[in-house]
Here is the input.
Amino acid sequence: MRGLAAFIMRGRWQALAVAVLGASSMLFGWLSAAAVALVTLRKGPSEGTWLVLWAALPALLVAYVSGDASTLLLLIGTYLLALVLRVSVSMALVALTSALVGLASGAGLLLFSPDFLAQLVELFTQVLDQLEASWQETGAGAPAFPRPTVVQVAGILAAGNAAMSMLSVLLGRWWQATLYNPGGFGSEFRSLRLPPVWTGVLALAAAGLWMSSPLLVGWAAVVMVPLTFCGLALVHNWAAVKGYGSGWLTAFYVVWVVFDPSKALLVGLVVIDALFDFRSRWASGGSNGST
Here is the structure.
């Protein structure tokens, strides 16, 4: 990955090649977005704007042909987050902005891509119908799966875009640190922490959306994206303090991906951290133990 980052920074046309080729595929849109983030962070808004406009052309073509505008939304979202990071030098502000990116992208899908959302709803419904039919063939009691709606699917896609935009800008930032400030990204990410007020606001908003209606569960996930990344940063900080290696972190991510309760637990830890600031306590304990 360092070689790819070096290639992107070798010149304008190398960066353009990576951005355009990545945006031409729905599978590698994240690569194009990360290239845009790297160029924006290192060379400034003018170069980033030039690159994202060119990369948006194949993304627009993909959206026109397939109806899927996810790559285009990812490019725009990542570019905006990269701008925020370059101007503010605040990872916390980037995390907060990722929720706004997700909400805006979800609203854009509802307004401009209703046919695509309807197709996804139909696809999910067919899959659930087949699943219920297979249960009935076994003679077991077939569970009744709730059918998704356009609003629910839009919320899920919005949460995915917010998360992918955040991941893409983090990848771009990691590339930048790898090339120009080795080791700088790790400490920056591990210190990611929202102000207590914003942590409380996001937690209450997510809980309110989650409990108010099944239609808004996906939208609650959008609001939880900043909290989730703060939780991951907290786990990485704990691993660094304890000296745990990559194996421990890999096991954590497997558990976090597979078991849904762990996601809620992670967010709960972030809320508690907003009150007690675990990082400061760990640092104080480490310094006391070393003297």
Q: What stands out?
A: The chain is about 85% helix and 0% strand. The two ends are 39 Å apart (CA to CA).
